[in-house]
Specification:
By secondary structure, the protein is mainly β. Helix content is about 0%, strand content about 50%. It starts with a strand and ends with a strand.
């Protein structure tokens, strides 16, 4: 199992980023996938989840209305579209596969002017 995140970077408040997580080594379209984040000095928290079919998504209250999780099962990839970013969104973002769990290495998102 391998999960590789990409798309992080430095963005100004109010800006947008799209994170990608490319998966391999398992049957991607049979697993729920989730995005988590960990800010300095804080515990890792769940940001969003998406079921194997993509029909059901859930979000942390802190990102509802700003972030959108999606997946492309043909490309074995899960995405996190992040809009209206705030400094509090600064963290390392990780994707995770259910029933393991398995984690990616993370991608840094920094929101700062």
């Amino acid at each position: 199992v391998q999960l590789v995140e990409s798309g992080g970077g430095l963005v100004q408040p109010g800006g947008s980023l799209r994170l990608s997580c490319s998966a391999s080594g398992f049957t991607f379209n049979t697993y729920t996938m989730t995005w988590h984040r960990q800010a300095p000095g804080k515990e890792r928290e769940l940001v969003a989840s998406i079921t194997s079919s993509g029909r059901i998504t859930n979000y942390a209250d802190s990102v509802k209305g700003r972030f959108t999780i999606s997946r492309d099962n043909a490309k074995n990839t899960v995405y996190l579209q992040m809009n209206s970013l705030k400094p509090d969104d600064t963290a390392i973002y990780y994707c995770r596969r259910d029933r393991g769990p398995y984690w990616g290495q993370g991608t840094q998102v920094t929101v700062s002017s």
